[in-house]
From TrEMBL:
Origin: domain of life: Bacteria
Keywords: Membrane, Transmembrane, Transmembrane helix
Protein name: DUF3180 domain-containing protein
Pfam families tied to this protein: DUF3180
Organism of this sequence: Cutibacterium porci
InterPro entries the record matches: DUF3180 (IPR021517)
Transmembrane segments: 30-48, 60-80, 100-129, 141-160
Length: 179
């Protein structure tokens, strides 16, 4: 998150090619988010199958769950907006640790939100065929609301991750080497 190399940087720690250090950290791709949602769906199906094997009743999700997830998503979105304002302002210094922690937090929130979306969709689809019965209807409605809240949480995590990008300065070159 720094705009220049640290003052203690010396030529002994540079890569062998003599160029600037290069990293392999990339923004989370939508394909990774889809894979996380599919993994969450598989875990949700596995958890529901355990209830079916044991001949137990699947619990009803409480209404507090989508509310809590939505509050977490709103808090993440608010932090992302505040952090982006700090990153964009050249007068303010962003510590490297704060940037890395924010990036990791954004990735974790986005991927866990996507996994929860997948699990909630499986939960919902299990009971959607019995909407005329009160408890399956309640499971479907609360599961749908939770899936929507988790999708908002996924978007907020992705927004936080993108808020960590340092804007290009006037002396930075683009991919083709032209300023």
């Amino acid at each position: 998150m720094t705009r220049s190399l640290p003052p203690d940087w010396d030529d002994d720690r540079r890569p062998d090619d003599g160029g600037d250090p290069q990293g392999s950290l990339a923004p989370t791709d939508w394909k990774v988010i889809i894979v996380a949602a599919l993994c969450g769906a598989a875990l949700g199906w596995f958890a529901l199958s355990i209830y079916k094997i044991n001949d137990d009743t699947v619990p009803i999700l409480p209404w507090s769950l989508p509310v809590i997830v939505l509050v977490a998503a709103i808090a993440t979105w608010g932090y992302a907006r505040a952090f982006r304002a700090k990153v964009v302002d050249p007068a303010r210094v962003v510590e490297a640790n704060q940037g890395l922690v924010s990036l990791a937090l954004g990735k974790a929130i986005a991927l866990s939100g996507a996994a929860l979306v997948g699990a909630c969709i499986v939960y919902m689809l299990t009971f959607v065929w019995h909407l005329n019965i009160p408890y399956p209807r309640q499971r479907t409605i609360v599961g749908g609301a939770t899936a929507i809240a988790c999708a908002v949480m996924t978007w907020a995590g992705w927004f936080l991750e993108n808020a960590c990008k340092v804007p290009k300065g006037p002396d930075d070159a683009d991919k083709h080497g032209t300023p």
